[in-house]
Amino acid sequence: MSLKLPFKRILLKLSGEVLAGNRKYGIDPHLTNQIANKIKVIHSKNIEIGIVIGGGNIFRGISVSAKGMDRVAADYLGMMATVMNAVALQSALEKTDCVTRVMSALSITQLAEPYIRRRAERHLEKKRIVIFGGGTGNPYFTTDTAAVLRGIEINADIIIKATKVDGIYSDDPLINNKAKKYKKLSFDEVIKKQLKVMDMTAFTLCKENNLPIAVLNIKDEKSLLNFINKQNVGSIVL
CATH homologous superfamily of domain 9-237? Predict the structure, then answer.
């Protein structure tokens, strides 16, 4: 599949840990505002943006369930954490004058609209930023899978996974300084090399739907903007 630039519509996947900054948990308002400003710059280029945020900075269902909590209960708590992050990012975005909607797969009507695909597409067409909270609404699925699912449903041109590392590596670059960085990979190469880009359910969905995945460092001041502007940043799978 050839990569079409510039993009008309993107799905931005943010890890919850990014919102925590240097804290071990919680939300760093200053850092959240910085991320909101980066998103605003992209939005000002007439790009439609959907966002999915993880909840690991508040609650991580899998690790808690491993310690004895019922997995279903733990996953629902994790989904609620994603709604908290979504509302926090919405607040930061609206301070920059970006019109934003939070849509949740869980019913929390005081904070978010229920997720309805056609309504989400309408918001995007009206140039509103849409933040999808509540994961898929079902236990046993990660926010990576939720991001890809929403990306497919809204016909996004690409999934941009914004993390703490600047691309896809042969090993964890934060642990192994000799890890090799890959700039461009096919889906089959990722599988063959057993690279950890996303969980397998999410990755398979991307492969089956020919949905490219980009990985970049959101902490870098201009990585998101540079990627949109066709600069040589991050890694891409297509």
Answer: Acetylglutamate kinase-like (3.40.1160.10)
